[in-house]
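Supplementary Note 3. Input sequence used for the single-chain structure prediction.
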Amino acid sequence: MAFSYTNSKGQTYYLHKKDVTLKNGRAQTIYFFARDVRDGSLNAVPGGYAVVETSRTGMPVLKKA
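The predicted structure, written as discrete structure tokens, is reproduced below.
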């Protein structure tokens, strides 16, 4: 079951992870929230991160703890 977060506006978002290659060739893992469950969904928040909500839009983001 994917990790879900419901923001203050009542919208539910699901946490996902994707490995990408940057223009300089370096590999990096990105974390993002989506309104639906897709490939790469995570069951829990990665260690060292916390979910916070942006004040303007209510969109959840991961922040290093």
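The mean pLDDT is 96. The beta strands are 4-6, 12-21, 27-34, 49-53, 60-64.
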